[in-house]
Specification:
alpha+beta; 48% helix; 7 helices; 17% strand
Length: 168
């Protein structure tokens, strides 16, 4: 009987250890991240995003192009922490935006059903992640959905110049 209790205790202990190892970590990719989030919170809570952000850099030519973006440019970044396209593209745009502090942005994390507590994704008809909605002076001028056509920088620059043609 004593051996049975020891074995039972050992099994329970092993079970707790296994459960703890499955639920601990620095990532919240278990679909719990949802809603407006800061860049710092995202990078602190999602190791894969942070690693990609740290590894990404842009050329001097691209830095000049990003610095030419107007100060009334705003980008809403809809993403899923669980989404491989988001894990690839969101760290890039965050790194790019570091080069022009005049461009504002908002990070909106979506759950696996592409919903957020503020219903911003529904309001803005977001179907895929990531989606970068680009605004100039409060008016939407374009979107990058899942991946850029050329590059994030070139696509946003083209949106800006195309919006100027509409104004003329």
């Amino acid at each position: 009987m004593l051996a049975f209790r020891s074995i039972s205790k050992m099994i329970v202990l092993i079970g707790f250890i296994l459960l703890a190892s499955c639920t601990s970590g620095t990532s919240t990719s278990d679909n719990t991240m949802s809603g407006i989030i800061t860049k710092d919170n995202l990078l602190a809570s999602e190791a894969s995003f942070n690693q990609s952000y740290q590894a990404f850099s842009i050329s001097e030519k691209d830095k000049l192009q990003v610095n030419d973006w107007p100060r009334d440019l705003h980008i809403e970044i809809y993403f899923g922490a669980w989404c491989h396209d988001s894990q690839r593209e969101v760290p890039k745009i965050l790194s790019i935006l570091d080069n022009n502090p005049n461009v504002t942005f908002q990070l909106i994390a979506l759950d696996i059903e592409k919903k957020d507590p503020e219903h911003l994704a529904k309001k803005n008809n977001i179907k895929y992640t990531p989606t970068f909605v680009v605004f100039l002076a409060g008016k939407e001028i374009g979107r990058i959905v899942e991946r850029p056509t050329q590059s994030i920088i070139n696509d946003i620059t083209a949106m800006y110049f195309n919006s100027l043609k509409v104004i003329d």
